[in-house]
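Sanity check. The docking grid for flavin-adenine dinucleotide depends on where the pocket ends up, so I'm generating a full predicted complex first rather than guessing from homology. Inputs follow.
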Amino acid sequence: MKISKIFDHKQVVFSLEVFPPKKNSSYTTVYNTLLQMRELPVDFISVTYGAGGSAAQRDKTIEIASLIIETYRIESVAHLTCVTSDEADVLAALESARAKGIQNVFALRGDIPADGERKYAFRHASDLVRFIRDHDSEINISGACYPEKHPEAPSLRADIENLKYKIDSGVSHLITQLFFDNDKFYAFRDLAAAAGIDVPIEAGIMPITTKTQLERVVKLSGAAVPDRLTRIHERYRDDPEAFFDAGIAFATDQIIDLVSRGVRGVHLYTMNSVETAKRIARNIGSILRAENK
Ligand code: FAD
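Predicted complex below; grid placement will be based on this.
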């Protein structure tokens, strides 16, 4: 089913993100992860596209997205980046996705490779979106957005103008970069609405469950960290179990606040942790049921 249709039927959508096996590692671990996630009340699972964007990475993403549909009967979204692709690469990805029954892609530019090895067929995600739309009128296209602005954008307003163009190019649903301060999301949502962006925006939530994770994630995303989160983590940094519980509790609070203020979806960055996905799903299960009655 197309993701846009899921939003037509549900008030609050719940989805998970997984990543394919890294270089040379086998599929067994991610298959076991998915096997255990299939019991959760999820509306779709998205599969990331390895940075670097080789054909082998594309095949892994499509393979796993297809398995999610075929074996677990859960809708899936295949991520696709374009910064290292040309038109032929994207056409090959689309053909492969179609052949495997995938109806949803997540169109991304991708991070500019540090070694400068990029292609220039698509400069922005919106170029990829237009290209996909021109070559496949059926496939559903989702895209990324950044409540605290994309690091390269000169301002949040400029970023939102570019986002509007991406929506007008054919994106029907957005997932945000992770954030920890809900007020940043609400301010972004208001600005997006004022700019005429009316597609459903899912909040990307990453529970911080290990002590090395926070530093790494903040460095990558630039997300602001509320004092409350810093305090929790400092207090439990030497107790992995308490740290995990505190991280899950913080993310649960964040989600309940978002849902109570009308968010259309929650996308969990699981980092392939079944325990994280299960704990959050258990904590918010009754809330999702109440919202979707
Ligand atoms: P764009 O939408 O192209 O935006 C990038 C920058 O260009 C922004 O600053 C924007 O304001 C600017 N811009 C856009 N259009 C224009 C224009 N017309 N003129 C001038 N400036 C413009 N990376 C991966 O490698 N694999 C993944 O699977 C993956 N999944 C992700 C999932 C989510 C939910 C998110 C939030 C990010 C994901 N990323 C992934 C990271 C993403 O690839 C990077 O953040 C990348 O730097 C930007 O990609 P984008 O699609 O948002 O780019």
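Relevant for the grid: Residues 252 and 280 are 6 Å apart (CA to CA).
Also worth noting: Residues 3-292 form a domain with the TIM Barrel fold (CATH 3.20.20.220).
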